[in-house]
Amino acid sequence: MEKNRCIVVDDEPAAHYVLVNYIERSADLELVAQCYNAFEALEYLRNNTVDLIFLDIDMPEITGMEFLRMLDSPPKTILTTAYSEYALESYDYGVVDYLLKPISFPRFFKAVQRFLSYTNSLVPQEEEPKAISIRMDGRLIEVKLAQIDFIQSFGNYVKIVTPAQTYLTASTTQQILKQVPASKFIRIHKSYIASINKVSKYEHGMVQINDTNLPVGITFRRELQERLGNR
Questions:
Q1: Mind listing the pLDDT tens digit for each residue in 154-189?
Q2: Is the overall model pTM greater than 0.70, yes or no?
Q3: CATH classification of 131-229 is 2.40.50.1020, yes or no?
Q4: Which secondary-structure segment (H or E) carries 133?
């Protein structure tokens, strides 16, 4: 399935870090450019086409809304802002949603789904995978997603832990993260990916899956709390 080409336009590096991470986890999006002001974005759009812009409203020299007004046919746009008063601003110029900073992944996901409803209303949605394929001991095997408790970085390998067996494969957590659906798995630490439905307890910076306690990194705690609250 062809992905939707998107760019991030924001003067804050921290905002780029968050959005790039979320985009990388979205099977329907492909990040093709990062711009730190409206001038860079205008230059890029002169020579390239994109399907979606993640656009900061409050930028120096040229604001996000001023930038959109300069475009003859603006691409679909998701506005980002740290100020809630922009929430009532008119959804003109191809704006399909806005995100209030700091942006959580569930809210980002909802905005992307709203964008996709504009572009893919007649296209049947691709089913989520039921298993992932990994290479272990020189052969290719399938591991059912429903059986996975968690995934752990282990040097140059990744351990995929199920109640019945632990699989060891030459890979990285980032590579595995791209294979598993974001609706069912969440990165909780630089070294761990957890099955969200297998988490039985979360307290004191740890999650419990079956009889195993896993650490939760500080940067991943807010999203985990939101995801657990929405189960």
A1: 988 999 999 999 999 999 888 898 889 888 999 999
A2: no
A3: yes
A4: strand 131-136
